[in-house]
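User: I'm new to structure prediction. If I give you an amino acid sequence, what do you actually give back? Let's try with this one:
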Amino acid sequence: MAIYKFKNHIPVIHSSSFVHPQATVTGNVIIGKHCYIGPGAAIRGDWGEIILEDGVNVQENCTIHMFPGKSIRLETSAHVGHGAIIHGANLGRNCMVGMNAVIMDDVYIGEESIIGAMTFIKAETNIPPRSLVVGNPGKIIKSVSDDMIAWKTAGTKLYQQLPTDCHKSLEEVEPLREIPKNRPKQENFYETLNEFKNNNSD
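Assistant: Good question. You get back a string of structure tokens that encode the predicted 3D arrangement of the chain. For your 202 residues, that looks like this:
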């Protein structure tokens, strides 16, 4: 893993969490239990503290950083989609930040809110709990329903299982040059989400 000490601060990463070898974690960073940090993610605690509470996932090519002197917290089960930037913002419990969204300094995203893909949240914005936010600049368009947050929570649980799966089975290999006759089929754990969606669509 690319884990770096910076000015006497060494990252603290719980053993149940998984940081991909192509991710970078620097300095004053604390990562709780069952967190997943994807390849290409950069979590840079040089100018302030970054805390990821239990069950947080930070997916591929995300950046987490801050203005000098700030400290930030991603609360339990916060979900940060591919390519998002969290710059000096705090994320509430079980919220979701969509792919390529940008969340600026001194923003607070309320618990169980959902920020749409490619949304821009300007500095010092306070998003109330259970808000659905989209656009540039981001605007609240409605409240998050019970079904929406239940669907989000089910998806986040897959990411909370992923660290264990990675510890058990992820390894660097040479690629095969032909498709083998006995190539294993993909696991059908996604059917759980499909069943959940179908059962909650009425």
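You can read the tokens as a compact description of the fold. Here is one thing that stands out. Residues 146-169 form the longest helix (24 residues).
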